[in-house]
Amino acid sequence: MNEDRATVRRGAFVATTEPWFGQIYRLRHRRFVVEQGKSYPGVSPDGTLVDAEDQRSRQIAYCEGGRLVAALRQTALQDVSPEGYLADLAVSARLLCAPETIVCSRFVTDEGGRSLRAVIALFRLAYQIGLDLNVRHSVLSTREELVSLFGTFGYRQTGGSFEHPVAGTQIIMLLDLFDTDHLNRIGSPLARVASRKIAGEVLS
């Protein structure tokens, strides 16, 4: 769903207006900077965390009761800046994937609303967008403690990792959007989206 009007009360959608961007950037700031104490570039006095990649990325959000609960950023691999936040991940991704690969980053949840429903809806929409764009791979990097979470969706470790100056050790994970056998085998929440897409249903 591509909707970000004030009428959005529950569900995943692509944010396209400044009020939603502001909520996403403030949630990032609170979780990553205030609560986790990380000194990311892009911190502003107004309590937001924004970087150059945001200007060329898609922001996916999940809302409940008019409140932002979770968010995820999608960036085309060919659009990633060689000097920005995603530079280290992009170096490895370009060796693994085609240029059309989607890079997922800035996954963030509200601590008070970290429901499995929100996370599943967020990643289902991200996956649906990838399928609609006929993208084969999605790549991300994460801390060790989140590897199992992304693994439940179908992301697999590549064997690669790198040290980010702020985020620390990052493990690189890759999702083959077309590997429905793997998605079905592990019981991925994305498997149903994949089967509907292959069956030719209109996803909404």
Describe the sheet with the most strands: 7 strands, mixed
Q: Mind telling me the C-alpha Rg?
A: 16 Å
Shape: globular
Spatial order of the strands in the main sheet? Answer: 1-2-3-4-5-7-6
Strand content: 25-35%
User: What's the total number of strands?
Assistant: 7
Distance, first to last CA: 6 Å
**What portion of residues is helical?**
25-40%
Q: SS-based structural class?
A: alpha+beta
The SSE order reads EHEEHEHEHEEHH
Helix run count: 6
Mean pLDDT: 89
Task: Catalogue the unreliable spans.
Answer: none
What does this structure look like?
With 204 residues, the protein is of the alpha+beta class. It has 6 helices and 7 strands. It is globular. The N and C termini lie close together (6 Å). The mean pLDDT is 89.
